[in-house]
Structures are given as C-alpha cells and as structure tokens.
Design goal:
The protein has no helices and 22 strands. It is mainly beta. 0% of the residues lie in helices and 51% in strands. The chain is flat, with a radius of gyration of 19 Å.
Length: 237
C-alpha cells in the first residue's frame, strides 16, 4: 500500500495596514539525494552535474494587498538551525555539513542558495532543514524547506512537484507545475502516469503520461492545493 504525503507550507505575516505577506521557500528542482553507504555513489551527483541541473533554493515574499512579489532584504540562512556563513565568492564556510557544497547567489531578484556539492554521506544520512530569514516592508519574514536524504534501496520511490512561482498575479493567466518521480534517486522517464487532484480528491487532470499540469485562474478560488499521484503498472507508488 502506498503512502501519500503532502509537504510544504507558507508563513503569513500580518502588517498594520491590513496587508498579509505570504513567505515561502521554494526550489526549482527536487531537493532530494540518495547515497550508497560506504561509497561515493550519489544520485543525483550534484558535484558533477552542470549548473543548470543543480537545485536553486529561493524565497518568495508576496504582498496580498498589493498583489506583487517583494524582494526581501537583510537575507540570512540557517542549516539545521545553525547560521550559515559564506566566503567572498559566496561559497558556504559553515556549518561543516554544507561547507563548500552550497553557494549563495542572486536569483529571481533575491539572494538564493545553489547546491553545488553532495550533501548526503554516511554521517549525514537523514533529512536537513534550510531556513531563510529576511525583511520586507519593515517586517521580519522567514520560511524553511526540507532537503530529503535517504540511503538508496530498491523500489524506493519519491515524487516531487516543482514550479518557479506559486501565485497567479498581474497579467498572468496560469502557472505550470511539473511532477518528477524518482526511483532510488534516478528520475523515472518511462512507464509512469500522473494524476492531479485537489485537496478534496476532485480530479484536476486525468491520469496520463505528461508530468505537467497548467493551473489557470479559473481553477483557483482564493487558494488551491494540488496533489499529484504517480502510477507505475497502474499502482500508486
């Protein structure tokens, strides 16, 4: 029997003028790495992948009243609750678990983190938490995201939903979510079907081979939670 797990969250800050700041920490690629104990076998191997295939973790601060995204200032980071420090080129120097493996960059109008090395190891063999802190409209904002680490094993499936934005605003009419199914850390590209439903189980897009769903304004009544199910041989994995 498959386990269905939904993860993620939004921090909401209330301003004196009645505005709400929705703050979320996002990643453009799955934050997931497997390793084989006692080896240098990682999947994906972030140390050898080209830059475009290394995950970027970035904050999104959204003003509900103004309907705009706000670039945060005074950005700082924590890794498993410990303050991160960086050298002159942006490479992490502390804490030791991520030193030399994460780089602070400019992305999407804000400071962001790019994973440039392998986080998993025999000693760092469970999930890590990355925390963002900053300021927006003279208000402290924060969010966190989980980097999932597991020891590779047969038939270990993990499913991720990725997007570059999670708000339809301005002249936008839609946004796209892309599902990524991994088996022992390797992306499954054949023999898989995806179904997208809402929180109540109502089908938003019927089961099919395409991993993407286009979410339009008409589909959203204030907020919409999207749940994706992946099927291999017609069984939810």
């Amino acid at each position: 029997m498959a386990n269905l797990r939904v993860s993620g969250g939004v921090n909401i800050s209330l301003l004196q003028n009645g505005d709400n700041l929705n703050t979320v920490l996002m990643s453009n690629l799955p934050l997931y790495q497997t390793f084989k104990k006692g080896t240098q076998d990682y999947s994906p191997n972030w140390a050898t992948l080209p830059s475009a295939q290394q995950p970027i973790i970035f904050p999104r601060v959204y003003s509900v009243m103004e309907a705009v995204t706000i670039a945060p200032s005074n950005v700082s980071w924590k890794y498993n609750g410990i303050a991160m420090t960086f050298d002159g080129s942006g490479i992490a120097t502390a804490p030791s678990v991520c030193a030399g493996k994460i780089k602070q960059i400019d992305y999407n109008g804000s400071k962001a983190l790019q994973i440039i090395g392998n986080i998993a190891s025999d000693t760092n063999n469970d999930s890590d938490i990355i925390t963002f802190n900053g300021s927006a409209v003279n208000t402290d904002v924060s969010a966190e995201i989980t980097l999932l680490i597991e020891e590779a094993s047969s038939n270990l499936y993990r499913l991720f939903l990725n997007m570059t934005d999670d708000v339809i605003d301005g002249d936008e009419t839609s946004l796209t979510m892309t599902a990524s199914l991994l088996n022992s850390g390797v992306q499954v590209t054949t023999g898989v079907q995806y179904e997208f439903v809402d929180q109540a189980g109502i089908v938003l897009r019927a089961k099919g081979t395409s991993p993407t769903i286009v979410v339009t304004r008409a589909m959203i009544d204030s907020e919409l939670m999207v749940v994706c199910k992946a099927y291999v041989n017609d069984v939810v994995v």
